[in-house]
Amino acid sequence: MASVKVAVRVRPMNRREKDLEAKFIIQMEKSKTTITNLKIPEGGTGDSGRERTKTFTYDFSFYSADTKSPDYVSQEMVFKTLGTDVVKSAFEGYNACVFAYGQTGSGKSYTMMGDSGDSGLIPRICEGLFSRINETTRWDEASFRTEVSYLEIYNERVRDLLRRKSSKTFNLRVREHPKEGPYVEDLSKHLVQNYGDVEELMDAGNINRTTAATGMNDVSSRSHAIFTIKFTQAKFDSEMPCETVSKIHLVDLAGSERADATGATGVRLKEGGNINKSLVTLGNVISALADLSQDAANPLVKKKPVFVPYRDSVLTWLLKDSLGGNSKTIMIASKNFKFFFFSIQCFV
Ligand SMILES: Nc1ncnc2c1ncn2[C@@H]1O[C@H](COP(=O)(O)OP(=O)(O)OP(=O)(O)O)[C@@H](O)[C@H]1O
After folding, report:
1. Contact 108 CB / ligand 1 (< 6 Å)
2. Is 7 left (phi over 0), alpha (psi -120 to 50) or beta?
3. What's residue 337's pLDDT?
4. Which helix (H) or strand (E) holds 158?
5. Burial of residue 101 (number of CB atoms within 10 Å: 0-12, 13-18, 19+)
6. Does 120 carry a binding-site annotation?
């Protein structure tokens, strides 16, 4: 698995979009996604020479807008394309991180968690992990310890979604261990033995997540949620005992909405400000990391110092180890229908 992969997914039209008579403006072919700006006439150009269509190439373009289409990409296909690699990487000792990024209502939570009838990447990755653990332990090749934690970052504050009633759950502190990197002080960690244990925790955490109705989604997640699996393998390598620890962060980011599009005011507007601030920091961190990797690829070019602003948001600080270093990262950008042109956000 390459160290960073980017996928984009388009969901079916919802009632609101149908009522607004929204037009379908996205075409997908293999890894290419084309967006049409309907404001620009066919054969013409828009302001400052903008073209009517723009094509972007990603590692994967998932067409999930119409279940009847032969190109339809199901939850299972998304897992087979992206999730199986995450499981494989964890067994190979890599950290892995999957982000879902997109505007509110574009399908991030559906891709990550899914719904009751059709589970998303997080449950499928956990199931895949346990089915491989069961296979390996059957042959006595290794022993495993799996721990789960689940938190949300709401208005730049960390909250434990798997709280025990007696413990402190709000406003937990992020600290940095000299060897193990950033961590959340007092975050509860739960030892799990099988997929059923994980499912129980996931359901409990999802109930605790901060959601609200916005102008664009009736059940909008107002926080970034990070579901983390810490996976330790103990085995014998050339008759010597060894232990590998990998972390999988599965991140459902809060919606990257524009205030004018959602009509947000008051509390929702403040939330939106904090959400967008941390998403901008995420973009800045990724672009600084891209500059660093370009510098590394061109050793003869004079390097300017690159500062990676991990500490500018709680999200990037906590995921520091998963954004750079020994980690495989997947970014899934979700798209919703629009009847005007908008730019695709791409993190490579
Ligand atoms: N691929 C899909 N197929 C079918 N329905 C989908 C798909 N993606 C999203 N939906 C539906 O669209 C609605 C909005 O999706 P979802 O809640 O996942 O958006 P979101 O991006 O997480 O929004 P927010 O940032 O506001 O939490 C939900 O009702 C969901 O079931």
Report:
1. yes
2. beta
3. 43
4. strand 157-160
5. buried
6. no
Does 31 show up as a binding residue in the annotation? no
Active-site residue, selected from the candidate residues 114, 252, 313, 328: 252
Q: Is the ipTM of this complex over 0.95?
A: yes
Distance CA 130, CA 144 (A): 10
Query: 206: Cβ below 6 Å to ligand 1?
Result: no
Selection from 127, 145, 135, 20 nearest residue 84 by Cα: 127
pLDDT at 236: 81
Cα(187) to ligand 1 centroid in Å equals: 28
The C-alpha atoms of residue 73 and residue 85 are separated, in whole angstroms, by 17
Rg (CA), the chain: 21
User: Does the annotation mark 108 as catalytic?
Assistant: yes
From 8, 9, 10, 11, the mutation candidate for ligand 1 (largest count of ligand atoms within 8 A of CB) is 11
Secondary structure percentages of the chain, helix, strand, coil, to 5: 30, 30, 40
Predicted pLDDT of residue 117 = 86
Q: Mean pLDDT of residues grouped by 10 in the chain (348 residues)? A: 80 89 90 89 76 90 94 96 93 89 87 92 96 84 92 89 72 88 92 96 87 57 89 85 90 72 57 74 83 72 80 91 76 58 28
Å from CA of 137 to ligand 1 middle: 37
Burial label, 116 (beta-carbon count in 10 A; 0-12, 13-18, 19+): exposed
Do 171 and 152 meet the contact criterion of CB atoms below 8 Å apart?
no
Closest CA to 35 of 51, 61, 54, 17: 54
Q: What three-state secondary structure class fits 70?
A: coil
Amino acid, single-letter form, for residue 49: G
Number of H helices, E strands in the chain: 10, 18
How far apart are alpha carbons 62 and 172 in whole angstroms?
Answer: 37
Residue 109 annotated in active site: yes
